[in-house]
Amino acid sequence: MLDDFFIRALVAGIGIAFVAGPLGCFVVWRRLSYFGDTLAHSALLGVTIAYSLEFSIAVSIFLISSVIALILIQLQRKTNLPSDALLGLLAHSSLAVGLVVIGFLTFIRFDIMGLLFGDILAVNKKDLFIIWFGGALILITLKIIWKPLFASTVNYELAEAEGLNPDRAKAVFTVLLAAIIAISIKLVGVLLITGMLIIPTAMARNLSDNPQKMVIFSIIGGLLSVFIGLFSSLEFNTPSGPSIIAAALVLFIFSLLKVKQTIQLKN
Amino acid sequence: MSIENNVLVKLNNVGLKQNQKWLVQGVSLQVEKGKIVTLIGPNGSGKSTTAKIALGFYKNIEGNVEKYTSNIGYVPQKISIDWTLPLRVNDLMLLTENLSDEVINESLTLTGVKHLKDKSLANLSGGEFQRVLLARAISKKPDLLVLDEPVQGVDFTGEIELYELIKELSLKLNCGILLISHDLHTVMSATDHVVCLNGHVCCCGSPSEVAKNSEYKALFGEQASQTLAIYEHKHDHVHTTDGEIKKK
Description:
The complex is a heterodimer of chains A (267) and B (248).
Chain A: H1 5-29, H2 33-53, H3 57-78, H4 83-104, H5 112-117, H6 125-154, H7 156-161, H8 166-188, H9 193-207, H10 211-236, H11 240-266
Chain B: E1 7-18, E2 21-32, E3 36-40, H1 47-55, E4 62-67, E5 72-75, H2 89-93, H3 101-110, H4 126-139, E6 144-148, H5 156-173, E7 176-180, E8 193-197, E9 201-205, H6 207-212, H7 214-220, H8 222-227, E10 237-239, E11 245-247
Parallel strand pairs in B: 3-7, 3-8, 5-6, 6-7
Antiparallel strand pairs in B: 1-2, 1-4, 8-9, 10-11
C-alpha cells in the first residue's frame, strides 16, 4: 500500500497534522510564529549540509535549527536589537546563505521548488518512519513538559513561584519546534511550515472556549487541510505545501462564520 | 529547627541590585505559620521585589533566604490573559496542580465565585478575577501564601470582604501569608506584622506601632498615620458576587 506515492504523502501528512496541532497552539499562544518561521528558513541551510556531507536531511535540519535558536538567544542577551529584528536577520540571512551554498553545489541537482514548497513525490518510506517515530517522540515530550509550559504561557512568574521550572520547559519546546520542522520539510516545504503550525490553530481558536478543545480542533483542522490539500495537489498538479496551506486558509475562513455568529448572539 | 519555630520563610538582610541601582536593600523579615505579614510602601519601594526575593526568583541577591517549604500559593501583581488563549476558570484552577473537582469547588466556594467555574476568564470583572486567582492560590492548601496586591480592581466593600476572607483563610489553612498591600491606608486588623518599605525597611512592627512611627509619618504624612485604618467593624449582611444579599 505504501508503494503508492500518494498514499505515502497522505500518511506523512496525517502524522504531521497530529504533531502540528498541539505545537501550533503553543506557537500561537506564546506568539512564536515569526520564531518558527526563522527556524524553518534556516532549514534550507540544513538541507544543503545534508546533501554535501551525505548526511540524514532530518537530523541535519534539526541540528541547524537548534543552533540557530541558540544563536538567537545569545544575540538577544548581547545586543540591543529588538527580537523581531534579530529574527528577521537570522531568517533571511540563513535562507540566503542556504541558497548561495546551493548555487555552489553544482554537482548535485536540487529541486529548489520542492525544498521551498514541498513535493508530494518526495516522501519515501524512510521519511514516513522519521515522521511517525519522530512525531511520537515529539508528542510524548510535549506531554511531559505540558504542565510547566502551559502554566508559564499563562503567567511565567506564577509557574516559577510554584516550582514548575518554566525555563527548562521553554528550552525543550524550542527543540521540539526544530524537530517538527525537520520532519515536515519534505511534504510542506521550508517557506510554509509555519503556516501548517499556525493556520489550523487560528481556525481552532475561532471554535474553542478552552485550551483542550483548541488543541483537538487544530489537529482536526490540520488533518482536513492535509486531505483536501493533497487531493487537490494530485488533481491540479500543484505543489503539495501551498495546496495544504490554501486548504487550511479556506477552513479558517469558514471558521470566521462561527465567530460572527457568536458575536451576534452576544449582542 | 525552624519547622518547630513555625518559620516558613526567612529573609536575612537581603538586597537586589539591577543596572547599578539598588531595588531593595537590607530587608529582613520572616513569615511564620498562621501569621500574616504585610508589606506596605510607596510605588517603587521594592514591595513586589521583596516578595519575589522571598519566592526565590532572583539568583544574584545579597544576603540570603531561608525557605522551609516548597508548597507555595502565589497571586502575582499583574496577570493578563491573552485573548489567543481560551481559558475558563476551571482551566486556571488546574494550572499548576492536578486537583480533584471537589477541591476546586471547595476553593471557589470559599472565595465566593463557584458560580463562575465554567465561565471564560475574558468575561470576568476585575474583582471576580482576583477572587478566582485567590481561589487558585489556596486550592492546593499551601503552607505559604504570597499575595501581591490581591484586592486590586475590587471596590471598597469588596476590598474589606476580601481582607476578611484572607484573615479567615490564614486561620482555616493555618498557613503563613506574605501580603503586599494595595494601599497603605487599609492595613487590616488581622495583620500580625507590618513592614514598611522604601527601598529599605523604614520601620516595622504591629500595625498600631507602625502608625505611630515617626519615619512612617515622614514617609506618608501625618494624615496617613491617622487613616491607617484598622478594620474592626460589623456587618449585618454580605453581598455575594452574584449580586445577592445574605443576612449573617
